[in-house]
Each structure stands twice: as C-alpha cells, then as structure tokens.
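Let's do one together. I've listed all components of the complex below, 223 residues spread over two lines.
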Amino acid sequence: NAGVTQTPKFQVLKTGQSMTLQCAQDMNHNSMYWYRQDPGMGLRLIYYSASEGTTDKGEVPNGYNVSRLNKREFSLRLESAAPSQTSVYFCASIPPGQSNQPQHFGDGTRLSIL
Amino acid sequence: QKEVEQNSGPLSVPEGAIASLNCTYSDRGSQSFFWYRQYSGKSPELIMFIYSNGDKEDGRFTAQLNKASQYVSLLIRDSQPSDSATYLCAVRAGNMLTFGGGTRLMVKP
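Okay, and this is what the predicted structure of the assembly comes out as:
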C-alpha cells in the first residue's frame, strides 16, 4: 500500500550542485505532477506529465527539468541548484478517467540549498 | 495567470463552533474543486471534492460551490482542536490543478 513514494525525504545541497528527486506511484495512474511549497504558501506546479512520454511546464518551471521514465516514475532534476530553490517538493498523481478525481500526494522532499 | 485566492488567516474559532473557509477562482473553465487539509510538516490530504453547483456534505464537512460567482467554500461543523491545520483550496481545469495559498485554522479548546 505504498501509493506515491518520494526519495529522498531530506537533502542539503551547495549552490551549483545538481540532483534528481525521484517519484514513483504504484496505482497505475496516468498523470503525475511536481509541486513546490514555500513557507506559508500553497503549492505551485513546476511540471506535470499527463501520460507516459509527455511532459508540460507548470507555473514555475525555470531551473528544473523532468523525465517521465515510465508510467510509474516521474523524476525532477535540478541542474545547478540555487538558494531560491530551497523548498519542500511534492510529487502527486491522479487516476485515469474523470477529471474530478483527486490527487494523491507523496510525503515530500525537504530540500535546502546553501 | 489562473488564480485561486484564499484568506491566509489565521482564522480562530472556539471548539464546537462552525468554521467557514472561503476560496475564489479566476478560471471560468474550472471543472472540479478540492479541499485539502495540511498539518505542519506533512503532505496535503484530501477532505472533499465538488464539481456541481450546490452543497455536498460529508460528516462534519460541507463544501459549497457557486460557479456563477466563482466561489467555493468549506464549512466545518462542531470544530475540534484536531481540525487546526492549513486548508488548501485547489481548482482543476483540464490537467492543471491550481492551489490557493491556504487558510490557517486554529480551533481553541
């Protein structure tokens, strides 16, 4: 009963370093999403993937890249981390079919960039 | 820019009272509407969703939607201290789900 799994849960990086945040879901969902949440704010969409093989930019895509490796996995990459990317990152997925279905969230990755 | 607006709060209510949380949205093409609860340091968890005008009740929670006014609300009856959290309104149009900034609710014993 894993649902949406994110790794790592915590990470500290230095400015300029790169890293990839991993997300996997075992619910056979088509669409997957990456959000960031800054203190006291709601979630802002970085990128999403409506189906395997497709990705689209969200509200705040600059400084990030994504890969939809297969139906289960959707990764987020920071090529050259900046302090402004310090945030909590959430991955989410939704089931296929009707658009009124809710999203399922992972537990988040807390990322600090020094 | 599609916007979802919420009062950031904090909204403070006494235990047992009704808490009323409000949300407005700008995209008239929005199809479905969600309320999430988020405890500090945790991921959002779904409370309710609604996609037709009117009221939808689930236990102590009632979601209300008025598409003409582009307004969605969440009522929490018999508020409990355990309801103290941030409540996020989310609006879906196509594959995009846009969140409001959240309202912090504090229920005082």
